């Protein structure tokens, strides 16, 4: 009820003619995806994911708060381990187990209302198909804005840093430990997710 209330409060129309509301959930919300889809069973949703090695490299090099918070209950819920066990894990293991859990949840709950999208698919034609999936028909001006903004780095505050694909660089940065943790905890869920996406 709280989540529904927050979305209703923050998602109110501002001008009165808005037709679509998009919500970007944090990755940790994947643990609550079943609950979210029960609240809005007919709402389309998209899960954007990436090769687990590249994701682990990103998170180990610049750890997000959810991965380093010393109240380990959230990660314990995500990984299915005790808070004590989570605290004893390396950062790479915590990340790999979490990513594997996210991939598993998304794969299990994916249905006709969902779209699985691998990061390596991102392109303007694919983004157009994503908009169609959400029944959005952008104007030529809006498509131009999408094309322009897709060429800059999304996490740059100024929005001026050009986007450069970094998959190869991240693969080269992956340590033996990261590769081992990915293989043990995330590769199989990733493979299943890819199979489901390609069906």
Can you list the strand order of the major beta sheet?
1-2
Report the oligomer. single chain
Unreliable parts:
none
The structural class is mainly alpha
Computed Rg: 18 Å
What separation lies between the terminal Cα atoms?
35 Å
General form: globular
By DSSP, the count of extended strands is 2
Number of domains: 1
Please give the count of helices.
12
SSE succession: HHEHHHHHEHHHHH
- Give the DSSP E fraction (strand runs of 2 or more residues): 5-15%
Report on this structure.
- The chain is mainly alpha-helical.
- It has one domain.
- It is built from twelve helices and two strands; from the N terminus they run ααβαααααβααααα.
- Strands 1-2 form a two-stranded parallel ribbon.
Question: Which helices and strands, and how do they pair?
Answer:
Layout: H1 2-10, H2 33-39, E1 45-49, H3 52-61, H4 65-68, H5 73-79, H6 83-88, H7 91-109, E2 114-118, H8 124-133, H9 140-149, H10 167-173, H11 176-185, H12 187-198
Parallel strand pairs: 1-2
Give me some keywords for this one.
199 residues, mainly alpha, 12 helices
Short description:
The protein is mostly helical and 199 residues long.
């Amino acid at each position: 009820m709280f989540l529904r209330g927050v979305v209703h409060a923050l998602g109110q129309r501002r001008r009165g003619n808005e037709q679509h509301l998009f919500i970007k959930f944090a990755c940790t919300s994947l643990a609550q995806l079943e609950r979210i889809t029960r609240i809005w069973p007919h709402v389309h949703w998209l899960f954007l994911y990436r090769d687990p090695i590249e994701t682990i490299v990103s998170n180990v090099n610049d750890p997000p708060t959810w991965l380093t918070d010393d109240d380990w209950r959230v990660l314990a819920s995500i990984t299915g381990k005790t808070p004590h066990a989570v605290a004893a894990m390396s950062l790479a293991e915590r990340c790999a187990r979490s990513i594997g859990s996210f991939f598993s949840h998304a794969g299990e709950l994916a249905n006709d209302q969902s779209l699985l999208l691998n990061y390596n698919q991102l392109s303007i034609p694919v983004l157009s198909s994503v908009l169609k999936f959400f029944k959005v028909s952008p104007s030529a001006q809006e498509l131009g804005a999408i094309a322009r903004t897709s060429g800059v780095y999304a996490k740059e505050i100024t929005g001026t840093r050009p986007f450069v694909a970094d998959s190869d660089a991240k693969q080269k940065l992956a340590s033996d430990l990261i590769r081992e943790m990915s293989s043990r905890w995330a590769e199989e869920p990733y493979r299943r997710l890819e199979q489901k996406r390609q069906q």
